[in-house]
Design a protein that fits this description.
The complex is a heterotrimer. Chain A is an all-alpha fold. Chain A contains 13 helices and 2 strands, in the order ααααααββααααααα. By secondary structure, chain C is of the alpha/beta class. The chains are: A mainly alpha, B mainly alpha, C alpha/beta. The interface between A and C is small, with 3 and 6 residues.
Chain lengths: ~325, ~350, ~250
């Protein structure tokens, strides 16, 4: 308790600490928003609530980590820093392929079923993916320690590693690319049409099966790229997936489907809230805070719905 | 009727005789009963009431900790007991051990029931996937928070008082605790599902909006059902605490992806919303798991995930659901075959 | 006769659409009241407001003198104000008798009564009511295997099983074979007289409603257009215009 009060006191005494926490939170929050956007996409288009979302993120992280660790590209004279950047599109591509396979094997069979089916099937998938990564890469936490410099502001109270900045810029670039794709490409339009009314889309000659497969694959790819960015600066571990899934759910529950600015705002907000929680309660509570935020958001939405006399479903 | 009575008599006799006939399988059978208990209780809300919880393991973990705190706290300060750096050794007498057990197990059940009763009204506003995710969040959050509470031993967990019994006898005792609880639960559910209460929760599952419009006290029935199931899971958790001697929060007590998902798989395998389905599912799953586990070294958990996916995707109605489909007459289902008129 | 339901000044809008504007009306105790109006005139919205499906924007709804506009669906249902659905809702997986037994008036059961099995009187009552609506022969069939019309009858029987004071019926004859409609009218009347249930009925079939109701209200564009005895409504030029689409 004393520790908690002390930590709160610190925030008041040194306002710059707040700024540092917010900057950190917004940086990681941008990646939560990416994973959440993928979840909202799949949720909206094919009404599948994907509990393996976080495991896609972690798998993408391991893809990039593996690429750097094997040293194939380094052996032809590319520096590790650059390989880590190459890892992002590679993870995007690899996860797109894995996502497509998962769609064809599992997801296509649960789309038309009740919601618990898809939830449980993807939960099983999440367990399977986490365990496979555990077998392949071991259960230690991993991170790419890149030798980028760190920028210091405000007498060294605020430190911003350049790697983090690069990561955030890549996340923003990816988000922008996806948005433009959804707006302008034929496939993007087909996806949006399907999410509004799949039957009407089918009648209008859209191959919804193809749209579903593409959407799920795109989702896995977005998550994978997010994971590749995460591994550059933060930690990954085979069993961290579930927390990323939970965070994605928090964001989507808070923002609602098809509300892109909301998803971004909620993602950044949750990133910041988690950093604050971690600062106040201690780093041991980080997972607990992520999950408690889920419960808080759920109950907040529940109260909103209750005013309209509806349940949250 | 007599045929049924005979069947139940044989099963009870087999339950009593089993640990003596197959002494080397006592631990296996004890775990089997644990599976049956958690599957039956999961089915109360998941199968009979239509609320699919992914977090019933919360009550198992809470039951473990409550049982431990009661058994220790009756005679010793819990904070000092769990202090890893303590130098003094606490010695527990036989009577203290048994008193802890006799009070700890029901106490854990009551506490968990109370928890469900308090959080029920919050959670039952969530429907469908939100309920599943919300309860999953509850279980994960509880595990993470408990692992930060030093008074409960933090991430290291708690060591239980040592049993005064010889390990072989202790095993038999634990077996009978589980089996007794399981038999009581089964008997209770057999009666419970035949009451108006049972019919009401079925109505909630089939069409909750209709049930509300007919004036059924939906929230009251949902909360009480969850509380009853929590009582039994909590007691099973407390028995596990005594069985395990030492346990820790994340992997043992609030084991979300372990027992937490096993109970769902057992029910799906056997058949949701039936009395025998969870029992049969638990037996099938446990036997399958024990037989195959050793042959897929290292890959067990991958196989488990795969099994969940396969069951959910291809065999979701379970054995009883399959039988209902091919032999509806056995379940007293009649369908108008002449075709509808008017 | 006194007003058992008293709606005064109720408005409800969804987004920008005004479904009900300043509606006032009463349902007399022991009578049969009809509610008519062209499609989209806000009849079902008014029903939903009365039974508590959504909060109203303004106005008051009283049932037996008690303000109910702030209460929730199950609370209102437990006062004895029951409704049936336009799209029939029954428990499809259960047979007819089980459907009936679930519809026992739970408001009259204490929590301990709920832990009892259904008594033989309950069963007899269920079978009697199934007989009343003409489903006795089909009582052991799974409800989902019944035709739409039969499901409607079952829902009606379930509502009777609940012993309501007032029953709100949303288009009871829609989807029912025309040859059976006279029988249904007869049963609705008997429910009104024999079981002394006050009925409030939305109906499109003019012949049916003119035959049964003591008082009829007519909605158009979310506003109360006219009210009165069936003969008055029949001759009201505004009602005729509303149905013919004149504005």
């Amino acid at each position: 308790m004393d520790q908690i009060l002390f930590n709160i006191g610190l925030l008041i005494e040194y306002p710059m600490v707040n700024l540092k926490i917010v900057i950190d939170g917004v940086m990681i929050g941008a990646l939560f928003a990416l994973a959440a956007y993928g979840l909202a996409l799949v949720w909206g288009v094919m009404n599948v609530k994907n509990l393996a979302q976080g495991d896609f993120v972690i798998a993408g992280g391991y893809t990039s980590w593996f690429l750097v660790k094997t040293g194939w590209l380094q052996s032809i004279g590319i520096s590790s820093n650059i390989v880590a950047l190459i890892g992002v599109p590679v993870a995007f591509g690899v996860m797109a392929a894995i996502g497509w396979v998962i769609y064809k094997l599992i997801i296509t069979r649960v789309i038309e079923r009740d919601l618990f089916t898809s939830l449980l099937a993807t939960f099983g998938l999440a367990i399977m993916m986490a365990q496979i990564m555990n077998l392949l890469f071991g259960s230690d936490t991993q991170s790419l320690k890149l030798d980028y410099e760190t920028l210091y502001f405000a007498d060294g109270l605020i430190d911003v590693p350049i790697a983090k900045l690069i990561g955030v810029c890549m996340a923003a670039g990816l988000a922008l690319a996806v948005i433009l794709f959804m707006k302008n490409s034929r496939m993007g339009q087909a996806i949006r049409a399907t999410s509004q009314d799949s039957r009407a889309a089918r009648v209008m000659g859209i191959d919804t099966e193809k749209v579903y497969a593409f959407t799920f694959s795109l989702n896995a790819a977005i998550c994978g790229a997010a994971g590749a960015i995460i591994v550059m600066v933060w930690l990954i571990q085979p069993f961290y997936g579930i927390t990323y899934s939970v965070r994605a759910f928090v964001v989507v529950t808070a923002a609602g489907l098809g509300n892109l600015p909301g998803v971004i705002a909620a993602g950044l907000g949750i990133g910041a809230a988690e950093q604050y929680g971690g600062h106040i309660f201690g780093i041991g509570y980080q997972q607990a805070i992520a999950v408690t935020l889920l419960l808080i958001v759920l109950f907040f939405r529940l109260l909103q719905q209750r005013r309209k006399r509806q349940a949250l479903n | 009727m007599t045929k049924n009575t005979l069947l139940y008599a044989v099963l009870v006799a087999a339950t009593v005789a089993a640990p003596f006939l197959f002494p080397s399988y006592t631990a296996f059978l004890a775990t089997l009963w644990l599976f049956i208990i958690v599957a039956l209780t999961w089915d109360m809300t998941g199968g009979q009431m239509g609320y699919n919880s992914l977090g019933n393991i919360f009550f198992y973990g809470t039951g473990m900790y409550t049982g431990a705190v009661i058994a220790i706290g009756l005679y010793f300060p819990v904070g000092e007991w769990t202090d890893a750096s303590r130098s003094e050794v606490f010695s527990v007498t036989a009577s203290q051990y048994y008193t802890g057990m006799i009070i700890g197990i029901p106490g854990a059940g009551l506490f968990c029931g109370l928890c469900a009763f308090i959080i029920g009204p919050l959670f039952f506003g969530l429907r469908g996937p939100y309920f599943a995710i919300g309860t999953l969040g509850l279980a994960i959050a509880a595990g993470e928070i408990v692992s930060n509470i030093e008074w409960l031993g933090g991430g290291q967990g708690i060591s239980m008082p040592h049993s005064p019994l010889h390990p072989d006898f202790e095993k038999v005792l634990i077996y009978f605790l589980y089996a007794g609880l399981g038999v009581v639960l089964f008997g209770f559910l057999r009666w419970f599902y035949s009451t108006r209460f049972g019919a009401a929760i079925n109505a909630i599952r089939d069409d909750e909006e209709k049930a509300e419009a007919m004036g059924i006290h939906t929230l009251r029935y949902k909360t009480i059902t969850w509380a009853i199931s929590a009582v039994f899971v909590g007691m099973a958790g407390a028995i596990s605490a005594f069985q395990l001697i030492h346990f820790e929060p994340l992997e043992t007590a609030y084991q979300t992806i372990n027992l937490g998902i096993f109970m769902v798989v057992c029910v799906l395998l056997g058949g949701k919303g039936t009395l025998w389905g969870p029992v049969i599912g638990a037996v099938l799953f446990h036997v399958f798991k024990e037989v195959t586990w050793n042959y897929i070294l290292g890959g067990q958990w991958v196989a488990l995930g795969l099994l969940i996916v396969i069951i959910v995707v291809f065999f979701q109605d379970g054995l009883m659901g399959y039988l209902k489909h091919v032999r509806p007459g056995w379940f007293g289902i009649k369908v108008d075959t002449k075709g509808a008129t008017s | 006769m006194s007003a058992i339901i008293d709606v005064s000044g109720v408005s409800k809008s969804f987004g920008g659409v005004k479904a009900n504007t300043d509606i006032s009306m009463t349902v007399e105790e022991g009578g049969i009241t009809g509610l008519i109006g062209p499609n989209g005139s806000g009849k079902t919205t008014l029903f939903n407001s009365i039974v508590g499906y959504h909060p109203v924007d303004g106005g008051s709804i009283r049932f037996e003198g008690q303000e109910i506009s702030k209460m929730l669906v199950p609370e209102i249902a437990r006062l004895g104000l029951l409704r049936t659905f336009q799209q029939t809702r029954i428990y499809g997986e259960m047979n007819c008798v089980e459907n009936m037994l679930i519809s026992l008036p739970h408001r009259k059961l204490s929590i301990w009564d709920a832990f009892r099995r259904n008594t033989s009187e309950d069963r007899e009552r269920a079978e009697h009511l199934l007989d009343f609506v003409g489903l006795f022969e089909k009582r052991w069939l799974q409800a989902s295997s019944l035709s739409f019309g039969q499901q409607k009858l079952l829902e009606f029987a379930m509502a009777l099983m609940n012993e309501p004071t007032v029953l709100l019926l949303d288009e009871p004859t829609a989807g029912i074979n025309p040859t059976l409609i006279n029988g249904l009218i007869d049963r609705l009347r008997r429910a009104n007289t024999e079981f002394s249930i006050t009925l409030f009925i939305i109906e499109h079939n003019m012949r049916v409603i003119m035959n049964m109701a003591d008082t009829i209200y007519c909605l158009a564009h979310g506003q109360m257009l006219a009210s009165g005895k069936p003969e008055e409504i029949q001759d009201d030029q505004r009602v005729i215009d509303a149905y013919l689409g004149a504005h």
